[in-house]
Amino acid sequence: MNEPGDAGIDLGLDRAHGARIYDYILGGKDNFEADREAAEASLRVWPALRTHMRANRAFMHRAGRFLAAERGVRQFLDIGTGIPTQPNLHEVVQAVVPDACVVYADNDPIVLAHARALMTGNGHGKTAYIDADMREPEKILAAPQLRDTLDLDQPIGLMLIAMLHFIEDDDEALRVARHVIDVLPPGSYFAATIATDDFAPEPLAKVREEYHAHGETLRWRPKEQAERFFEGLELEEPGLVQMHKWRPDPIDIGSIDDADIAMYGAVGRKP
């Protein structure tokens, strides 16, 4: 596979990219002018965006830790991992279960470079990376990196964190998620955060306009649409809620305004 910057690789530096916007807002350095412009424009119309993105990262940490520590999950598939912000998923779960195995999938060359450099295990569990778009779940599931790292006969924790809003079409987004869920063995889990404008529709309409103006997709979904992704799964308590309310750390309880959070989060078990 090519390194970013190799001939023939389009980094898309003339348009914003969701992972790089996320990276910039969280204080990272792997972003470019278009990403910074989109981020700053979005922050101007909705200053809570930074709080929201930090809450999303915290949800991923809590969900991964919960599945490893309390549900005994030893294998994880993280689709759309983005640019790593430590601790990343493998660091979270391997701190609990040193031999946990994690497969990441993403299609951004910048993420690929980081995957090679940073996404390594602790010497016990295996960590692998698949260069693939989430819209091609068949490619992800057929990848030798996945087959060599995960046992598809044993429960897997599927993570789709802050990804489904990059697919505009509701049926296509549902197809992508359900295709992978349907392949997972019973006892597997699905954790996701799903973007919504239910709590602050006016500023979030402007955020969506800014994303679109800078070449990136953003699709808000109401709660009833978010629930569709978990149909047939047994939701862990407290169900589908704003992500900062899903098993919050005690120190965070009451510290975040609901209007500052634009995602639902949930974890469901496949019976």
What's the gist of this structure?
The chain has helices at residues 18-25, 33-45, 49-70, 89-96, 109-118, 137-142, 144-149, 170-183, 201-213, 223-228; strands at residues 75-79, 101-106, 127-131, 157-161, 189-195, 234-235, 241-242, 263-269.
Nearest-angstrom radius of gyration?
17 Å
Identify low-pLDDT runs: 1-9
What percentage of residues falls in helices of 4 or more residues? 25-40%
Rough shape? globular
Explain what this protein looks like in three dimensions.
With 271 residues, the chain is α/β, with parallel strands linked by helices. The protein has one domain (18-269): Vaccinia Virus protein VP39 (Rossmann fold), CATH 3.40.50.150. 39% of the residues lie in helices and 14% in strands. It is built from ten helices and eight strands. The protein has helices spanning 18-25, 33-45, 49-70, 89-96, 109-118, 137-142, 144-149, 170-183, 201-213, 223-228, and strands at residues 75-79, 101-106, 127-131, 157-161, 189-195, 234-235, 241-242, 263-269. Strands 1, 2, 3, 4, 5, 6, 7 and 8 form an eight-stranded mixed beta sheet that branches. Strand 2, helix 5 and strand 3 form a beta-alpha-beta unit. Helix 3 (49-70) packs parallel to helix 4. It is globular and about 45 Å long.
